[in-house]
Design brief:
The protein is an alpha/beta fold. The chain has a single domain, classed as Rossmann fold. Helix content is 32%, strand content 20%. The strands form two sheets. The chain has a seven-stranded mixed β-sheet with strand order 1-3-2-6-7-8-9, sandwiched between helices. It has a two-stranded antiparallel sheet with strand order 4-5. The longest helix has 20 residues. The model has no long low-confidence stretch (mean pLDDT 94).
């Protein structure tokens, strides 16, 4: 069972579910949430479960799914991705049941978490506020057209990547952007002078995006 960390105030009218990267946990983006200073938004920062990761010699760490390699042609953990998709769907549906409209819920994620955010949002059966996809890629790319849901065809997608990213290359991210655009999504693309990380300029831009799609 996923454990959630909720950073909130008493005035929340919207929700962001923010998924961390491989080997991190839900605490990883708490400082970023504080910097964003958006008290009308509830941030849910779940922990991925521990699982063996093939890329890291089978070492157990928090991961949304197994990773076999970082090359675009590497085998992908379809079963793991789809299992976590259902877990994230459950989190979204719990917020809807709690009174937050789907149109006021946004999925965000960094690296592997961003891959899960893109995968899940494009297939979710109610219109979401948007997707924040940081330093990431589109998993199971060949299945997108068959599985995408019309409810989120107009979902705003904000993608950002570092030009010096040595983990997920800029070219990999650009390829994912092209695939999303070919499938009919409007992608707002940003590049920053950074490695596989986040930077202050990016956080400022994220804040403006969140205020646009989740206004006070």
């Amino acid at each position: 069972m996923l454990k959630n960390i909720v950073v909130t105030s008493s005035e929340c009218t919207a929700c962001v579910i923010w998924l961390h990267g491989l080997g991190a946990d839900g605490h990883d983006f708490e400082p970023v949430v504080q910097m964003l200073n958006l008290p009308h938004i509830k941030f849910i920062l779940p922990h991925a479960p521990y699982r063996p990761v093939t890329l890291n010699n089978g070492y157990e760490m928090r991961a949304w799914y197994d990773i076999f390699g970082l090359a675009s042609e590497s085998q992908q953990d379809e079963a793991g991705i789809k299992s976590m998709q259902q877990e994230i769907n459950n989190m979204i549906e719990a917020e809807i049941a709690d009174g937050v409209p789907a149109q006021r819920i946004l999925l965000a994620g960094f690296s592997q978490g961003g891959a899960m955010a893109l995968h899940t949002a494009t297939r979710f059966n109610q219109s979401l506020a948007g997707v924040l996809a940081l330093s990431t890629y589109l998993p199971l790319k060949n299945q997108l057209v068959a599985e995408q849901h019309v409810s989120n065809q107009q979902c705003p997608i904000w993608m950002a990547h570092g030009r010096q990213d040595g983990v997920i290359t800029l070219a990999t991210a650009q390829s994912s952007r092209a695939l999303l655009e070919a499938a009919g999504y409007a992608v707002e693309w940003h590049e920053y002078e950074m490695a596989h990380s986040v930077c202050e300029a990016e956080i400022d831009d994220i804040r403006q995006f969140l205020l646009r799609v989740l206004p006070v």
